[in-house]
Amino acid sequence: MLLTKYSKMSASIVPYSAVLCGGRSVVVDAMTKAQVHEMYTLVQDAAQAGLGFGADEYTDEEEFLEDIEDGFQFAVMDKDSGEMVAAFVLAVSKYSRGCLTADPFIVVKPNMRGYRLGSFCMTTCVKFAKELGFMGIYCDTFSNNTPMIKIVESLPGFQKVGCLPMGGLLKDGQIVGTEIYYKDLRNDQG
């Protein structure tokens, strides 16, 4: 983790082991500095491919680190090889005044897409956000990010609360909209 003040809180929930659909065993743990760098690289690659992040989302790694430093950073690793196959951050929302709302960032390695890791990460984000005391969780995703929209809409309790016609810039210069979903975690049972 980047901030030591959160390490005790995150230590209460990780390491977390799970078996994915298809039988792959994974371990979720706090990210190392090397894994944070790897996540930044994956975010940059996804942005260049127009997959969930804007081409101008982060001008450099320092800006990315500043954006995630107040949150909880997690790596999803293959249990057998130890390789990071996905990563997620539960950032503290900068749009939520006076209440602790989680803003998840999720990225899956390109060669691991199609194994439902995105669904696993989002479900785990909700689970961890509840355990860490967040009051709610929201997800804003580009309107062309069909896989993430399907994931969020399949999870219980998320409501579409809005959209922004100008959510981000793609590599080719096109502007893409953003779909916004929210889930209240205060009395959530599911």
Question: Mind explaining what this structure looks like?
Answer:
This protein is α+β, with helices and mostly antiparallel strands and 190 residues long. 28% of the residues lie in helices and 33% in strands. It is built from five helices and eight strands, in the order H-E-E-H-H-E-E-E-H-E-H-E-E. It has helices spanning 7-11, 33-48, 61-68, 117-131, 146-154; strands at residues 16-19, 25-30, 72-78, 84-92, 101-108, 136-142, 159-169, 175-184. It has an eight-stranded mixed beta sheet with strand order 1-2-3-4-5-6-8-7, with helices on both faces.
Question: What topology does this entry show?
Answer:
Layout: H1 7-11, E1 16-19, E2 25-30, H2 33-48, H3 61-68, E3 72-78, E4 84-92, E5 101-108, H4 117-131, E6 136-142, H5 146-154, E7 159-169, E8 175-184
Parallel strand pairs: 5-6
Antiparallel strand pairs: 1-2, 2-3, 3-4, 4-5, 6-8, 7-8
The rounded Rg comes to 16 Å
Number of helices: 5
Low-pLDDT stretches are 1-5
Shape from CA axes? globular
Record the strand order, biggest sheet.
1-2-3-4-5-6-8-7
Amount of beta strand: 25-35%
